[in-house]
Amino acid sequence: MVLIFRRVMQLVGLSLSLLGWVLSCLTTYLPQWKILNLELNEMENWTMGLWQTCVFQEEVGMQCKDFDSFLALPTELRISRILMFLSNGFGILGLLVSGFGLDCLRIGEEQAELKKRLIILGGILLWLSGITALVPVSWVAHITVQEFWDDTVPDIVPRWEFGVALFVGWVAGFSLLLGGFLLNCAAFSTQAPSGHYTVAEMQAQCPHLEAGNRS
C-alpha cells in the first residue's frame, strides 16, 4: 500500500509540475500582463506583455509592436523577463531529473537511493521554478495596483488593470510548488526494503509501461 501511495504521489506531482511548466512558458510570452480599457473609445483595448504592446480594434483586429529596447523597459518588466526565463529553465530541469527518479521507470530500479535523490533534487528545482514564476507576476500585479490607486494621476487618465497572463502565472507557480511538494513527500516516504521492485509489482503499478515493453 505504501508503494502504491508513493507512486501515485510521484505521478500526480509530476503531472502538476508539467502543467505548471507549460503554463509558465505560456505566461512568459502572453501579451496580456496588463490591459487598458479606454472609456472614451470602448472599441479599442490595449494590452502589455513582457515583449510587446498590442492594441485590439474591432475594425482592424489586433496589432502588436515589440519593445525597441530592453533597457528602456520599466524595472519590473526587465526583472520579470529574467525571472520567467529562470522559471522555465528550472522547470524543465526539474521535470527531467524527477522523471529519471520515478519508481515506474525500470532503468536503475536497483538503485533506490539514487532515484530518491533524483526525486528530491527534481522537487527542489520545481520549487525554484514555482517561486521564480510567482515573484514576477506578483510584482507586476503590485505595481499595477499602486498605479491604479495613485491619487496624483487625474481620474480621466485610463489605468492599467490585471491581464489574463497574471492569473495564468499564479496558477503556474502554485502548480509547480505543489508538484514539487508531492514529489518530495513521495521521496521521503517509506522505501522498499529490498531497494528494488518485483516484476509483479511493476505490472500492477505501471501497466502502461509494461504494455509498452511487450509491444
Please describe the topology of this protein.
Elements: H1 2-29, E1 34-37, E2 44-48, E3 52-57, E4 61-66, H2 75-100, H3 112-148, E5 161-162, H4 164-187, H5 199-205, H6 207-214
Antiparallel strand pairs: 1-2, 1-5, 2-3, 3-4
Helix pairs in contact: 1-2, 1-3, 1-4, 2-3, 3-4, 5-6
Folded structure, characterized:
This protein has 215 residues and is an alpha+beta fold. It has a single domain (1-189), classed as Up-down Bundle (Butyryl-CoA Dehydrogenase, subunit A, domain 3). Helix content is 60%, strand content 11%. The chain has a 5-stranded antiparallel sheet with strand order 4-3-2-1-5. A hairpin with a 6-residue loop joins strand 1 (34-37) and strand 2 (44-48). It starts with a helix and ends with a helix. The model is unreliable at 192-205 and 208-213 (pLDDT under 50).
Poorly predicted regions are 192-205, 208-213
Number of strands: 5
* Overall average residue pLDDT: 84
Q: What characterizes the major β-sheet? A: 5 strands, antiparallel
The CATH architecture can be named as Up-down Bundle
Principal-axis shape equals elongated
Strand arrangement in the largest pleated sheet: 4-3-2-1-5
Number of helices: 6
Order of helices and strands: HEEEEHHEHHH
Distance between the termini: 29 Å
CATH topology category name? Butyryl-CoA Dehydrogenase, subunit A, domain 3
Helicity, as a percent range: 55-70%
Strand percentage: 5-15%
Subcellular location: Cell junction, Tight junction; Cell membrane
Membrane topology: Multi-pass membrane protein
GO molecular function, one term: structural molecule activity
Transmembrane segments: 82-106, 118-142, 162-183
